[in-house]
Write a structure and sequence with these properties.
With 286 residues, the chain is of the alpha/beta class. The protein is 40% helix and 17% strand. The chain has a single domain (2-160, 183-217, 255-276), classed as 3-Layer(aba) Sandwich (Rossmann fold), CATH 3.40.50. It contains ten helices and twelve strands. The strands form four sheets. A six-stranded parallel beta sheet has the order 2-1-3-4-5-10, sandwiched between helices. The protein has a two-stranded parallel sheet with strand order 6-9. Strands 7-12 form a two-stranded parallel ribbon.
């Protein structure tokens, strides 16, 4: 039986993995929240890994607040870079496998088409730079490690765009939504299924980086429009430019990820974000 440790288990992906994992009794799951296991502390990781006889670590722990990262840059790097380095060191020391979740924000958004795994990275915010450093720690590793870059994560859990739009649309008659940033929404449940497929596939660690997102490019505005439509909520959506919100952190204009490589490598059929959104909304309503 494969013994798996999931860090950051109370986040969107961690909770999605927890739900999906119930269908995989051939894997022994060990879910640890950031309160139970702080990846910034090497000794804590070692202790848990040895105690549970872990073979594979799935790192869902991350500092994900893009805007706050501009002020709390030290904390962002401590978790997203130094914490990942600790995990890498543990995996090299004990010969473990590591799957790490990264972001579309490692790209600057200047490309017209979709970003492939080998395209040039150029992070433009503190959050993006901290995640990029974390990636490099993985890529330089001598052990069996891999990075999954994903984008625009949503789920029934935690804070995310879908839940925010639903909440605001019920209380506000009008919502302003950015219409000049483009990407692919990713349903955390679908990503969780792919991660488990990678765990069970002996060829998963042959490459260091994969992209995963649901199919279909969209803008935040059109994403919000679809949420409102599916929920049948009466609310006016107003498209605005990114500059309207005067954000400290710069976001990439186009962070659309190409998923052709992971589809071809593992014979995957990735469904559209529209279909995944419907499933997500059903769970939110329960």
């Amino acid at each position: 039986m494969i013994k798996v440790l999931v860090t950051g288990s109370e986040g969107q992906l961690g909770q999605s993995l927890k739900l999906v994992s119930k269908n995989y009794s051939n894997i022994e799951w060990n879910f640890f929240s950031k309160k139970q296991l702080d990846i910034r502390k090497f000794d804590q990781i070692i202790r848990v890994v040895l105690n549970k006889k872990i073979q594979i670590i799935i790192n869902c722990a991350a500092y994900t607040n893009v805007e706050n990262s501009e002020r709390e840059f030290t904390k962002a790097f401590e978790v997203n870079s130094n914490g990942v380095k600790n995990l890498v060191n543990v995996c090299e020391k004990l010969k473990l496998k590591l799957i790490h979740i990264s972001t579309d924000y490692v790209f600057d958004g200047k490309k017209n088409g979709e970003y492939q795994e080998n395209n040039k990275t150029n992070p433009i915010s503190i959050y993006a730079k901290s995640k990029f450093e974390g990636e490099n720690n993985i890529i330089r590793s001598n052990s069996e490690t891999l990075v999954i870059r994903t984008s625009w994560l949503f789920s029934p859990y935690g804070k995310n765009f879908v839940k925010t739009i639903i909440k605001r649309s019920k209380h506000d008659g009008e919502i302003k939504v950015v219409n000049d940033q483009f990407g692919k929404p990713t349903y955390a449940m679908d990503l969780a299924q792919v991660i488990i497929a990678l765990i069970l596939n002996k060829n998963s660690f042959k490459n260091k980086v994969y992209h995963f997102a649901n199919s279909g490019k969209t803008s935040w505005y059109n994403f919000a429009k679809k949420i409102i439509s599916y929920k049948k909520i009466e609310c006016k959506l107003v498209p605005v430019s990114s500059s309207f919100f005067n954000y400290k952190a710069i976001r990439p204009e186009n962070s659309t990820l190409s998923t052709k490589f992971i589809e071809k490598s593992f014979n995957l059929e990735i469904r559209s974000w529209n279909l995944s959104l419907k499933d997500c909304l059903k769970l939110i309503d329960e």
